[in-house]
Amino acid sequence: MEYYLGREDPWKEFGASEEQWKDWRWQRSNVITSPQELSGYIDLSDSQIGMIENTIKSGKPMRITPYYTSLMGRNPTSVEGGLSIGYNVNGVFLQAVPTPDMYLMKAGTPDPMSEGSRSAGAFYQRYVDRGALMSSPSGQCHMFCTHCQRGKDQGNEAVQKGIDEGVEYIRRNENISEVLITGGDALAISGRKLESILKSLSGIGHVESVRIASRLPVTNPFASDPERLEMIGRYSKHTGGSSDLPNIYFATHANSPEELTFEMQEGVSRIRRAGFDIRNQTVLLKGVNDDFKKMSRMFMDMHHMGINPRYIFQCHKVDGLASKIVPINVGQYIMSDLRGQEGSSIPTYAVNMTGGGGKVVLTPQSDFGMQDFGYRLLRNMRTWKNDVVGYEELMRVRESDYVKALYAMSEFYGDSSILDSSEHDMMEEMFYSDDKPIDIGRMANAKDIKVRESASGKYRPSVIVVSDNDPDDILYVTNVSTPEIMTFDNKADALGYRRNGEELGFRGQPYVTNPQGFSPDYAAVREPDFTLSV
User: Fold this and answer.
1) 434 pLDDT exceeds 60?
2) What is the pLDDT of residue 458?
3) pTM greater than 0.85
4) How high is the pLDDT of residue 120?
5) What's the CA gap between 56 and 66, in Å, rounded?
6) Angstrom distance (rounded) from CA 99 to CA 97
7) How many Cα atoms are found within 13 Å in the side-chain-facing hemisphere of 184?
8) Could you write out the three-class secondary structure of 89-155?
9) Looking at the DSSP assignment, which residues form a beta bridge with residue 352?
10) d(Cα 487, Cα 503) in Å, to the nearest integer?
11) Can you list the pairs that 490-494 forms with residues at least 24 positions away whose Cβ atoms lie under 8 Å?
12) Residue 266 CA neighbour count, 13 Å, CB half
């Protein structure tokens, strides 16, 4: 596999020794929290520093480990050594640095999964047989992700009373067979606190599996130290010497190939050698991974690292994340193309329903006659309870907020093509004037609404733009088109599309349908013998 190569000897830039750099405690003690400090390690203009600072003051804090900062490159808005996908913004930068669109586009809710109303102490239950124990809020994370689904908790501390109440609820509810220890970050808490939780759960006979959720293998990979892993192993049936103990495994969270480094591989290997499986969940994020080539490289390399790529999740509709959401049809197109790579490295694409309805799988239809990659304003989702629930995948943003955000990002990235005065005038001409507001209850697909596509390569969110005065008055939807297709006329061309610098194809023989040639009827259904979205 290929590792992403960050900076050479990065500890020198951060004034540390190599020994300090590889100490997870040093990484945690030297997190970067201000744009002024960040500008010492990446190129930021005075304007960018000011806008990041304003975003932080609006309630979107920043915390980045030196290690994760080193993966950005000196100029992250032009991608040094990374994989650009048209936005030319480093995927690590987009996940770590809060930008003005996060507070200018006012949309979303702090708690889209309604965790507060479904909890017993610190235990959150959505399903009959499993649930999540919040061991720490996101305020204890070594890094604050800009797409955090629990951003409301950043800066808060865990309350031991809530954990005790959650454990007691688990003890009394014999339906619960699996517990997810999460937060926040389960490995960000003290070893003593984590051991206390594991000891309590190991004494509950009906708890058969424990999942430890942590982003530290990605943002601070040195934290998977042997001492802590040995402690965890004492409470697992596979390493603790007793079949009465639960099975313990890890879940981490990587979103971009830039995160898959040699240091991450070493951390994952320590976890595997200690006797634990490790799974990954990826969030589909605009500009970070909404591209087949990035996803394909990441999942294949992840598989060879020893990580099971379990899920791709649709981004939650959390306050401040309107610009990060990718239309579901784009995700389905990526999933369709991923079917051509190694089967064991293909994740499941799913959305966690707003309100706590649980996961709904978004796998595209295999029947060509039912295949539909078109954008839909409202989708009818069937939950695990067999309820049919309407789901509006994009966020509604007021027109004035949308225009302000685009102007701000135009200045932030130094790209006037994002939105200038002439483009704004064009958008004005596209607005509905005499038509009545659209009733989303009868909305079928994008052909019923005005769709605004972007000519800009760097930044354009996918949002539902509504009138300032009426959130039900939809003016237009931006950037919801189906990805373009790269077709190959023959097997030789397909085989030639391999890894070459930043390009990515398949390693090994691509799957070729009907290699003896196409019949007219077959060709009418699927003309190429091999496709990749680009």
Assistant:
1) no
2) 44
3) no
4) 83
5) 19
6) 6
7) 25
8) CCHHHHHHCCCCHHHHCCCCECCCCCHHHHEECCEECCCCCEEEEECCCHHHCCCCCCCCCCHHHCC
9) 359
10) 16
11) 490/529, 491/515, 491/529, 491/530, 494/529, 494/530
12) 10
Give the CA angle between residues 211, 95, 308 to the nearest 5°: 35
pLDDT interval class at 459 (50, 70, 90): low
H/E element, 230: helix 226-233
- Going by pLDDT thresholds of 50, 70 and 90, the confidence category of residue 243 is confident
Q: What tokens were used for 185?
A: 């970050």
The amino acid at 310? R
In sequence order, which residues have a C-beta less than 8 Å from that of residue 417 and are 6 or more positions away?
410, 423, 455, 456, 457, 458
Q: Please work out, in degrees rounded to the nearest 5, the angle formed at the alpha carbon of residue 156 by the alpha carbons of 151 and 161.
A: 120
Per-residue pLDDT tens over the stretch 342-388: 677 889 999 988 877 788 898 776 555 444 567 778 888 888 878 88
**How many CB atoms sit inside 10 A of residue 510's CB?**
19
Tokens of 194: 């984590």
Distance CA 360, CA 232 (A): 32
In this structure, the number of other CB atoms found within 10 A of the CB of residue 270 comes to: 18
Contact predicate 348/311, CB 8 Å: yes
CA dist., res. 241 & res. 228, Å (int): 17
Q: Which of 150, 146, 145 is nearest to 132 (CA)?
A: 150
Please say if the pLDDT value at position 490 is more than 50: no
